[in-house]
Amino acid sequence: MIDVVALGVAGVLEPVAALWRAEIAAARGWLQDRCLPVDGFLRGAGAARRAGHRAPIATAASRSGLALAPRDRVALFQAVGAAVPRPTRPSVRALMLELGREHRLVFLEKGSRERLSAWLDVLGIADVAERKLCTEDLGHEARPPRPLAFRWIAERLGAPAGRCLYVAGAADLGRAARHAGWQVLDVPAAPGVADLESLLCELTQLPGLVRR
Fold first, then answer.
1. Between the CA of residue 192 and those of 23, 129, 183, 196, what are the distances in Å?
2. Handedness of CA 31, 8, 168, 178 (dihedral sign)
3. What are the sequence ranges of the domains in the chain?
């Protein structure tokens, strides 16, 4: 029996490679429109992507010395979020809602809350989860592979760890979930929109899918 299903956003809800390309292109256009330096940002974004970092936009901005006011940071995140490819199948949202009726649904990701919120708004699924959590919301001690975020979710939702499932979009978050006593379903390759529909269909058949 599974009470809580936490979906890793990147690598589960959107293909990571496609997401990076869209984000970097959107950020580049946003910077150019404001006559802000682009070359250092692009080098940082490329290095972050090659290294497999999940937040190349934030990483690249930091490494390039790009100092943005809080209002500009939010505007950049919104521009980046608007570039995320939209799912083309309404059934994806319907399946997500079905999953949420059967289980307490959580979206979990690393990085900033502004970025996650903008992203989910673009995908049209911001309202389907009971909780939306970024590990940075809980501070340094929650950074993966530390298990604090998963313990926090289980405690707040009143669910035993063994009855919680993380669908892993990021390997380090998967390790953190296991350390917290959760069940983990690894997604070996980032699915596309069509594959996401298949994944959600399988998840609605829980607990037969679930394994330690």
1. 16, 21, 24, 6
2. positive
3. 4-15+87-203, 16-82
Exposed, middle or buried by CB within 10 Å (0-12, 13-18, 19+), for 161?
A: middle
Q: Indicate the range of 20-24, 25-29, 31-35, 146-150 predicted with least confidence.
A: 20-24
Element (H, E) at 107: strand 104-109
- Cα–Cα distance, 126 to 51 (Å, whole number): 29
Q: Tell me, which fold does domain 4-15+87-203 have in CATH?
A: Rossmann fold (3.40.50)
Predicted TM-score (pTM) above 0.85: no
Rounded to whole angstroms, the Cα distance separating 148 from 180 reads 8
- Give the per-residue pLDDT at 91: 75
Say how many C-beta atoms besides its own lie within 10 A of residue 91's C-beta: 12
Burial-class residue 130 by CB neighbours within 10 Å (0-12, 13-18, 19+). Answer: middle
Which of 165, 144, 145 shows the shortest CA–CA distance to 154? 165
Of 7-16, 72-81, 151-160, 161-170, the poorest mean pLDDT is in 7-16
Q: Which of 124, 122, 151 is nearest to 135 (CA)?
A: 151
pLDDT tens-digit map of 49-106: 666 555 567 667 767 777 778 788 778 877 877 776 655 556 778 888 888 888 999 9
Picking from 161, 57, 177, 163, the residue whose alpha carbon sits closest to that of residue 108 is: 177
Q: 32 exposed, middle or buried (CB, 10 Å; 0-12, 13-18, 19+)? A: exposed
Query: In the beta sheet, which residues pair with residue 134?
Result: 109
